[in-house]
Specification:
With 334 residues, the protein is of the alpha+beta class. It contains 8 helices and 7 strands. Strands 2-4-5-7-6 form a 5-stranded mixed beta sheet, covered by helices on one side. Strands 1-3 form a two-stranded antiparallel ribbon. It is elongated. The mean pLDDT is 80.
Amino acid sequence: MLVLISELFVLVQVLALPGEVDFSWTRLAMLSLFVQWIVLSSSAFLYLARPFLKGLPIWQSVMISLLGVQIITLLLTLLSQTLLSPVHFAPDWQQVNRNLLAALIISAMLLRYFYIQYEVSLQQQVIHNARLDSLQATMRPHFLFNSMNIIASLIQVNPEKAEQAVEDLSDLFRASLQNPGQNKSAVVPIQKEIQISESYLRIEQQRLGERLEVKWLVGELPHRLSIPPFTLQPLVENAIYHGIQPLEAGGFITISINIDQQMVQISVENPMPYTETISKGNQIALNNIRSRLAMLYGSKASLTTDIREHSGVKWYTAQVRYPCQWDNAVDLQI
């Protein structure tokens, strides 16, 4: 963009201010070469000074940047005049002042443009984080309230199982109340998400007994492989509430997790009542997960669902795909 703007400036100067002679391609080429020297040298200066400028107040960074561009423009202008008249060199201060003024105006406009771009990017990032936190905040109470209802139903029937369920829930509380923003990361280790889902399944196992069977098919997963929190657990929760629970005989849930071509693939499959359709409650959880995946991975991630019939049984499958990411900042401790 800088090269394009500088070339436009050269064209305007040559066409609008032809000088003592008519339009000349040679003059255009020489002026273009001179301006490109200034642009590239100034860009290199700002790039090298960026680590130092980042630690200063904005007004100081702007002043140092403008001063640096002015010094570069002055030196290159004097150098060009020396090269054009090596024997009888006499600085053309009128030309020097004109170049300095043009460089000051253009560099000030560009700095203002980049500052506005930075502010817009910062605002978008804040909105993005706020939406992500909101989606995760709505997911955690939903999961916790369901778990509390399970324990409440066990207290009268089987107090010992209720006590065990409370212990599992305390672990889940600790995991669910952690704010990803505190770790500056919107993801957690996938092993942690699996442990949360296992704890949740133990609670459901207390309530459903032999009606619930679970089959895990987990491939080799790197320890640092990450996943957005509460991506797998809501799928398992939906499989129980909309699949296993309405069935008198219950059924088994198959959970498979593996990596294929640098994509994490998660599948949760469960039987469902023959007359059952996808409920609104099911869609809320799925839309929540879809929104968070889209915000973190864009179009590279997906959550799809499928219903098929096999041997007179209706099966529901939810599949999640997202790019592999290894986040060294994630907390591996549960």
